[in-house]
Specification:
The complex is a heterodimer. By secondary structure, chain A is mainly β. Helices cover 0% and strands 50% of the residues of chain A. In chain A, the strands form three sheets. In chain A, strands 2, 5, 6, 10, 11 and 12 form a six-stranded mixed sheet that branches. In chain B, strands 2, 4, 5, 6, 9, 10 and 11 form a seven-stranded mixed sheet that branches. In chain B, strands 1-3-8-7 form a four-stranded antiparallel sheet, with no helix packed on it. Chain B is built from no helices and eleven strands. Chain B has strands spanning 5-7, 10-13, 19-24, 31-37, 43-50, 53-57, 65-68, 75-79, 88-95, 103-104, 108-112. The chains are: A mainly beta, B mainly beta. The A-B interface holds A 32, 34, 36, 42-46, 49, 51, 90, 92, 98-106 and B 4, 6, 31, 33, 35, 41-48, 55-56, 58, 91, 93, 98-99, 101-107.
Chain lengths: 113, 113
């Protein structure tokens, strides 16, 4: 069964600084990979997805992620964070014939002024 | 942009009572899902539904849970006899096809007293 690891529970970044959130997955083949963001009291909003092709994918709100097969990673990046980026970020994987998404435990992003 | 809508936003129920959580998926979507998120924990897959039947369910989705698409627009999750540990945020999701992202609603917070 697939699994997703987000090793950082909390990350604090200064506004305007760059950001990288880590995600590692465990799966035998190439899965479908996703990043979702959850603001307090809100649902899950899709930031970006990887299905195949170019390993660097662009998403909404200036986010991008890079799929690295050799490292089983799909890290999320943003060159300059804004205070409105403070939220919970979830990496998710789909594959192996399973229909449901498997989520990581999430990374809570705090933005310092 | 079309959205997945969930009602109610917050449901408070006595332990042992039945509860029905309602979702209206995006209108041209064919695959429907329920997930739950216990406070402070990761999002967990419960069940997927396609062509008027369950296509996959997790270990969490035991006999107390059921899903139904009673008409062309609603998708419901019923919990037959609620327990304290059913307290969680429940998310509905839908997608048009497989190999497409799932779109999530804002969730229903279920509180069991």
């Amino acid at each position: 069964a697939q699994s997703v690891t987000q090793p950082d529970i909390h990350i604090t970044v200064s506004e305007g600084a760059s950001l990288e959130l880590r995600c590692n997955y465990s799966y035998g083949a190439t899965p479908y990979l996703f990043w979702y963001v959850q603001s307090p009291g809100q649902g899950l909003q899709l930031l970006l997805k990887y299905f195949s092709g170019d390993t660097l994918v662009q998403g909404i709100k200036g986010f991008e992620a890079e799929f690295k097969r050799s490292q089983s990673s799909f890290n999320l990046r943003k060159p300059s964070v804004h205070w409105s980026d403070a939220a919970e970020y979830f990496c998710a994987v789909e594959g192996g014939g399973a229909d449901g998404l498997t989520f990581g435990k999430g990374t809570h992003l705090i933005i310092q002024p | 942009e079309p959205e997945v809508t969930q009602t109610p936003s917050h449901q408070v129920t006595q332990m042992g009572q039945e509860v029905i959580l309602r979702c209206v998926p995006i209108s041209n979507h064919l695959y429907f899902y329920w997930y739950r998120q216990i406070l402070g924990q990761k999002v967990e897959f419960l069940v997927s539904f396609y062509n008027n039947e369950i296509s996959e369910k997790s270990e969490i989705f035991d006999d107390q849970f059921s899903v139904e698409r009673p008409d062309g627009s609603n998708f419901t999750l019923k919990i037959r006899s609620t327990k304290l540990e059913d307290s969680a945020m429940y998310f509905c999701a839908s997608r048009m096809l497989q190999a497409r992202p799932q779109h999530f609603g804002d969730g229903t917070r279920l509180s069991i007293l």
